[in-house]
Amino acid sequence: MKHLGFTLAEVLITLGIIGVISALTLPSLLNDTQGAQVGPKLGKAAAMFEQANQVLLQEYNSDRLSDAGLWVSRDQNAAITYGNELSKYLKISRYNGTAYTVPTSQTFSVRISSNNSSWLSKDGVIYYIQFMDSVRLNNKSHIALVAVDINGSASPNLPGTDVFAFSLVDDGSLYPLGSVNSRPDGQWSYSWRDYCRNDEIPTNNAYYSCTASIFENNMKVMYKMR
């Protein structure tokens, strides 16, 4: 007599095979899905910041933030003043909520507080602005660090995953950290080509260089995210 259907042993073996395949492929699928969302969000956040700076400079009839009196070397109170002016065009408000981290001397340890210039946009992006001494690179003056958390206070709050770092140029443009010669304070020398290679997991203290990786790979995440 022929038996229709599968035996219990056959079903269990099949489920086991499916489980093994899922365990092998699911992390990659999740990484691809997450990575596909990062590029557009980061690109939009950076573009809006730059556009707001250009409108701000037009209002001041200037082509440099320093000439407009909106940058004072390492003066965080001045950074707050600058953020207040920028908020007129970027639609951001002061943010003193959950802490996240931004790069400083090749690590991520700066915490948001009421003393920091942190701003939350209406679409949930946090901008952190830290003025620094002006550094001349590629014929441009770099005057500040700008960290962008594309999903606000929501987890994971990790550099290279949802927190990305830029150098702010005096003309209002953003320079992705990890680009060639992106060393706004003379210490961040890592290039994404060395420390955020495609299809590899970046070293922990160089995740900030992945910002340049995204911008130089057509806004795609080519490295392995955490």
Tally of helical segments: 4
Could you report the average pLDDT, rounded to the nearest whole number?
79
The secondary structure category is alpha+beta
* Secondary-structure element pattern, one letter each: HHEEEEEEEEHH
| Oligomeric assembly | single chain
Give a verbal description of the structure:
The chain is α+β, with helices and mostly antiparallel strands and 226 residues long. It has four helices and eight strands; from the N terminus they run ααββββββββαα. The chain has helices spanning 8-59, 76-90, 192-195, 210-215, and strands spanning 92-94, 103-104, 107-108, 117-121, 126-137, 140-149, 163-169, 174-176. The strands form two sheets. The chain has a six-stranded antiparallel β-sheet. A two-stranded antiparallel sheet has the order 2-3. A hairpin with a 2-residue loop joins strand 2 and strand 3 (107-108). The longest helix is centred in the N-terminal third of the chain and has 52 residues, at 8-59. It is elongated and about 80 Å long. The N and C termini lie far apart (55 Å).
Question: In short, what is this structure?
Answer:
With 226 residues, the protein is α+β, with helices and mostly antiparallel strands. The chain is built from 4 helices and 8 strands, in the order ααββββββββαα. It starts with 7 loop residues before the first helix and ends in an 11-residue tail after the last helix.
List the helices and strands and how they pair.
Layout: H1 8-59, H2 76-90, E1 92-94, E2 103-104, E3 107-108, E4 117-121, E5 126-137, E6 140-149, E7 163-169, E8 174-176, H3 192-195, H4 210-215
Antiparallel strand pairs: 1-4, 2-3, 4-5, 5-6, 6-7, 7-8
Helix pairs in contact: 1-2
